[in-house]
Design goal:
246 residues; four-stranded antiparallel β-sheet; 41% helix; globular
C-alpha cells in the first residue's frame, strides 16, 4: 500500500531541492515494503548502507549525503549519514528518529511521519553541518540577519508549491468516483522498486474513493541516480546514522 501522500511528496521534493540548491547537500527519501522483496535477509542497517553506497548519495569529497529509508512492512527505518559526518551526528540522528519519525509511525501515520522526520533531519543535521556548526546546534542558519533572506525565499517557494498542490487536491476531491459516483477522491504514492545506478525504478500512484476504496492505480518511472535527473555525487557511508523500530 502506498504510504506517502501526493501533497506530502511534493513538499518533500521542494524541501530537498532547496537544501541541495542552497547548501550542496544531497538528501533522498526511499520507502519500501520489506527488504526481503529485494532478496536481502540481513541487518537493515547493512541494507541501508549498501543502498547509500550503490547510489553514491552526497558529494564525493565531503561525503555529506543523507538517506532516509523506511520499510513499513518490516516496521524499521534508517537515517543513514555519509562518511563525512563525525560520530557525534549519530546522536542527533537518533534523536530525530525517536522524536520525529517513530511517534507517528507507531500510529501508522507514515506520510506525516516521513515528512515531519525528514524536515527535522534537514533542520537539525543537514543545514547545521553545512554551515559548519557542531552537532545539536539547531537549524544551521548563521544568525538572524544571515539566515532571514534564505528562509523567506524558501518559505515563499514552499507556499507556492503547496498552493498549486492544494488546487490540484481540490480539483481531485470534487471529481466523482467512476465506480460509485461519490466525491472526495484522494491520491497517495509509493516506491515499488527503488532506482539503482544501473536501472530506473518504479513507483505507484493510487487514487482512492472514501466510499468504495481504490478506484485507479498507475505506475510511474523513477529516474536512476546519475541519469537524466542529475543523480548523486558519488558519496559514501561508513554505516553512521541511527535506526528506529516500532
Amino acid at each position: 500500500m502506498p504510504i506517502i501522500e501526493a501533497a506530502a511528496e511534493d513538499r518533500l521534493r521542494a524541501a530537498l531541492s532547496a537544501l541541495r540548491a542552497e547548501t550542496g547537500v544531497e538528501m533522498t527519501v526511499v520507502t519500501i515494503a520489506r527488504r526481503s522483496d529485494y532478496g536481502y535477509l540481513g541487518l537493515f542497517e547493512d541494507f541501508a548502507t549498501h543502498l547509500f553506497n550503490t547510489w553514491g548519495v552526497g558529494d564525493a569529497t565531503r561525503n555529506d549525503g543523507i538517506l532516509v529509508l523506511v520499510a513499513h512492512r518490516d516496521r524499521e527505518m534508517r537515517l543513514e549519514l555519509g562518511a563525512g559526518h563525525a560520530r557525534d551526528w549519530d546522536r542527533v540522528a537518533r534523536d530525530v528518529a525517536e522524536e520525529s519519525f517513530l511517534p507517528l509511525f507507531r500510529e501508522d501515520r507514515y506520510s506525516e511521519g516521513i515528512e515531519t522526520g525528514t524536515m527535522a533531519a534537514i533542520a537539525r543535521i543537514a543545514r547545521p553541518r553545512a554551515a559548519g556548526k557542531p552537532p545539536g546546534s539547531g537549524s544551521g542558519t548563521g544568525g538572524w540577519g544571515a539566515g532571514l533572506l534564505p528562509l523567506l525565499l524558501f518559505a515563499a517557494f514552499f507556499l507556492a508549491v503547496a498552493f498549486r498542490r492544494r488546487l490540484g487536491d481540490l480539483g481531485l476531491r470534487v471529481r466523482r468516483c467512476p465506480g460509485c459516483g461519490q466525491r472526495g477522491l484522494h491520491q497517495i504514492r509509493e516506491v515499488i522498486c527503488p532506482a539503482t545506478s544501473a536501472e530506473a525504478g518504479d513507483g505507484r500512484q493510487v487514487t482512492s474513493c472514501p466510499a468504495c476504496g481504490p478506484s485507479d492505480t498507475k505506475t510511474y518511472p523513477i529516474s536512476r541516480p546519475g541519469g537524466s535527473s542529475g543523480g548523486f555525487g558519488g558519496g559514501r557511508s561508513s554505516g553512521g546514522g541511527a535506526s528506529g523500530r516500532w
